């Protein structure tokens, strides 16, 4: 029991210091480790297994909707990065520069891709000739680098893993349709798989992507009341097409510029998982993204027949769920704590008395509810309970978010809400950049988005008091 | 028909210029494209789909044998790279150096990983404490960079995709066992999935990996008689463990160094596929790695009922194979050529007369054999034929390799064989590095390996004539 306590005691309580709790959890749940490379993380097997499940499930959705995977070079020549003016201004300050290859100094610097619009555009300019070549629906899974000053595992790292979709279309309408379609795919994915409810909306001009016409976002609320931008899609219009000369001949043999989009989600989503579902005992991983959905923990495993039964259950359950068996020589208490720390959604306890009675005990990670089940109905009960956990995690997160969504009529209200009960704050906005800047400066909150489900909670700007017809969600954000 | 001819005529014949044939095929089969980034390739959807099939099938084998995926940073600080002497000497001359992050000059240069031994070692030094932590069986899929002067798609590129396994074991025996186990997995994978026969053997000291105790290799023979190193596994002994201080306490509470291995295969394997199976009509992809295993080409598709039937067959076959349907408005001749260029193993032709007779025509890509089949037996015949193709491609490659494997007793023989009929050349070797150097210099051939299936074809060195008991396979290589 002392070891058991120790494992748990080593985590800071989230109410005491949320940031510390977060870094404790990523380490203790064995998601990552640090290395001597500043701001980069080692994603350990457990963390990477979550990423693989995320990747394979999202990849299926993208393939079902006609997207194809490709791989672009990781380097971008400086001259290529500079082709689109807004884009280079946005990214040049935060890229890593390769200046030497082997012993020689390069004649032109190469940056390690912070994102690959320029490479896709160069390729499309060569590869697209006629309307028959459209749409081009490409995606790639890779790592990218942005030279951040302060970093935090999963949330902001020098290097991170992501997918970046890059598409080219014949018309502005199709590009807009794609931009919104992907936003829906992201939002559905986050809700159904990660059990995180999302608000969909448009970014203000201040917050949009460097070079984009319009940027859309899905925003989620963390346990501490801060927002996390969880995925973005961008409609570029024909801006990049003009900068890179990507033209096609249409059916009437006229030359036209293509209309483009790009979109991405990153390892950040794992950060969201942690901060939405976790608690003071560690991680809570929704079943659909859990590398281990059920862990079997034998009780009094030295007693005759216990390990055999546990092993039999493991083989049986492995047909329907991702299951493992902890038959190590650690104490049950230690095993329970570790199972909780890793956020395994369900554990099954079985000991000599259970076997005698023909039963087992299921314990839910999220509610800690103990469910006594007959061994005849194990499969059914496990599947059922995992489904319930998946559903209730989403529900719980939605209730938390709704309970932390507020309205502010003026700057004073906005400030006091942020100080006392941080969360999403709805406030009307006049559309003036100056008001966004002022709110940021005085409160630390940024405009998260103009939500699609637009309502009106007034007609004057929360900042300047002038007429306003846009509802904005304001929040402090990661 | 003129378009059809054109597509084919644009490829150089392999007998005229093998190198040109190769680059023609990678472009025309839509595997890759070039970009403005020197020496790096764009892997297009068709090429990347082959890589995804390769990756998922090999990944399964590695997971089945207990290996877990992780992700390490892409950067290595110069001081970390320098920790193991042989390793840094081997790699430092060919790495890309990041010297600036954003606007600031870095205090220490970072290289873009050419391979990740140093990062894994640093991690293991932190992470491994006791015998309970062993073995550590980690793998990662990523891209690496080596600053090559001359490059060729898939075979030698500045950046390439690969998997790199890095393991740590309690004993020298276990490390050796792992090194050979992985070599078997690679060899079986190449034979069963890529239909490429491999020779397994050990590298000479000259050819072994920088920092390794022993390097093992699988070597294959290309259509032009050149060898291709297709995968390597390295036993490091405790050399890296000593350089990085990776120690564990054993059951008796003594401190011991771990024993390590590393191993990898790369996108190079796609180059092998092309050069082993391809012909003057383009690529030939073995069914198990083919993104499209069967393409349906309707004949006289404007005639009533043809497209409907073709579509029905596609839906039916999609349950059992990777199938597509070319219902574009191109001519059947053009479609046949494209199907051949992409190396789709099997095509199914169906026209009005076939439908009347209740039949279809299967055409094998490898032999061009036409097989008339009844529509009742489509599923069965398709599966059967794909199996036969997979088997016969391997057989054909094995026959080609065996027919191009020679024996040489002395340097003159070695030279004349290499000039007249290049291939694998067996020759005895005294073990002296000077002989390897001389052979390289005078003939261009290198020692590919000392094969496990060692035979003796003499007792004097093919180069110096002194006593020799090692059989070496010599060849010119990619
Ligand atoms: Zn205002
Ligand atoms: Zn010799």
TrEMBL record, chains A, B:
GO CC aspect terms: aminoacyl-tRNA synthetase multienzyme complex; cytoplasm
PROSITE patterns xref list: AA_TRNA_LIGASE_II
GO MF terms, alphabetically ordered: ATP binding; catalytic activity, acting on a protein; proline-tRNA ligase activity; transferase activity
Record-listed E.C. numbers: 6.1.1.15
Keywords for the protein's UniProt record, in alphabetical order: Aminoacyl-tRNA synthetase, ATP-binding, Cytoplasm, Ligase, Nucleotide-binding, Protein biosynthesis
Gene3D superfamilies: Anticodon-binding domain, Bira Bifunctional Protein, Domain 2, C-terminal domain of ProRS
Listed GO biological process terms: prolyl-tRNA aminoacylation
Top-level lineage group: Bacteria
Chief location category: cytoplasm
Compartments (UniProt record): Cytoplasm
All copies of domain Aminoacyl-transfer RNA synthetases class-II family profile, residue ranges: 45-286
UniProt cross-references to InterPro entries, sorted A to Z: aa-tRNA-synt_IIb, aa-tRNA-synth_II, aa-tRNA-synth_II/BPL/LPL, Anticodon-bd, Anticodon-bd_dom_sf, Pro-tRNA-ligase_IIa, Pro-tRNA-ligase_IIa_arc-type, Pro-tRNA_ligase_II_C
UniProt domain comment: Consists of three domains: the N-terminal catalytic domain, the anticodon-binding domain and the C-terminal extension.
Subunit annotation: Homodimer.
Function statement: Catalyzes the attachment of proline to tRNA(Pro) in a two-step reaction: proline is first activated by ATP to form Pro-AMP and then transferred to the acceptor end of tRNA(Pro).
Protein's name in the database: Proline--tRNA ligase
Biological classification of the source: Bacteria, Bacillati, Bacillota, Clostridia, Eubacteriales
């Amino acid at each position: 029991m002392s070891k058991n306590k120790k494992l748990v005691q080593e985590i800071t309580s989230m109410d005491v210091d949320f940031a510390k709790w977060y870094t404790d959890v990523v380490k203790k749940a064995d998601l990552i480790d640090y290395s001597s490379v500043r701001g980069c993380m080692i994603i350990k097997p457990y963390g990477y297994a979550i990423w693989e499940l995320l990747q394979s499930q999202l990849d299926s959705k993208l393939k079902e909707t006609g997207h194809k995977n490709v791989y672009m070079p990781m380097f971008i020549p400086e001259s290529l990065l500079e082709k689109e003016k807004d884009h280079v201004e946005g990214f040049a300050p935060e890229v890593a520069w390769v200046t030497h290859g082997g012993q020689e100094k390069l004649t032109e610097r190469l940056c390690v891709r912070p994102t690959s619009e320029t490479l896709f555009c160069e390729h499309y300019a060569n590869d697209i000739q006629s309307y028959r070549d459209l749409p081009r629906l490409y995606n790639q899974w890779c790592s990218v680098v942005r030279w951040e000053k302060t970093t935090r595992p999963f949330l902001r790292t020098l290097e991170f893993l992501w997918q970046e979709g890059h598409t080219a279309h014949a018309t502005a309408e199709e590009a807009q349709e794609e931009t919104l379609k992907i936003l829906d795919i992201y939002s559905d994915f986050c809700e159904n798989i990660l059990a995180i409810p999302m608000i969909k909306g448009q970014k203000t001009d201040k917050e949009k992507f460097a070079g984009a016409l319009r940027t859309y976002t899905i925003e989620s609320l963390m346990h501490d009341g801060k927002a996390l931008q969880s995925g973005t899609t961008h409609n570029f219009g024909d801006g990049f097409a003009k900068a890179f000369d990507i033209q096609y001949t249409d059916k009437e043999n006229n030359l036209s510029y293509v209309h483009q989009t790009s979109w991405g989600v990153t390892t950040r989503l794992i950060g969201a998982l942690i901060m939405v579902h976790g608690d003071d005992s560690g991680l809570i991983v929704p079943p659909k993204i859990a590398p281990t959905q059920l862990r079997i923990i034998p009780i009094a495993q030295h007693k005759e027949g216990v390990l055999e039964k546990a092993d039999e259950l493991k083989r049986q359950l492995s047909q329907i769920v991702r299951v493992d068996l902890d038959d190590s020589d650690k104490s049950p208490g230690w095993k329970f704590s570790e199972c909780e720390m890793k956020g395994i959604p369900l554990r099954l306890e079985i000991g000599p008395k259970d076997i005698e009675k023909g039963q087992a005990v299921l314990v839910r990670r999220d509610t800690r509810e103990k469910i006594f089940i007959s061994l005849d109905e194990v499969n059914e009960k496990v599947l059922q309970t995992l489904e319930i956990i998946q559903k209730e995690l989403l529900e719980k997160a939605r209730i938390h978010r709704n309970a932390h969504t507020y309205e502010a009529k003026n700057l004073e209200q906005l400030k006091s809400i942020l100080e006392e009960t941080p969360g999403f704050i709805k406030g009307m906005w006049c559309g003036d950049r100056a008001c966004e800047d002022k709110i940021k400066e005085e409160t630390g909150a940024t405009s998260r988005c103009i939500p699609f489900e637009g309502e009106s909670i007034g007609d004057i700007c929360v900042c300047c008091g002038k007429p306003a017809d846009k509802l904005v969600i304001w929040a402090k954000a990661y």
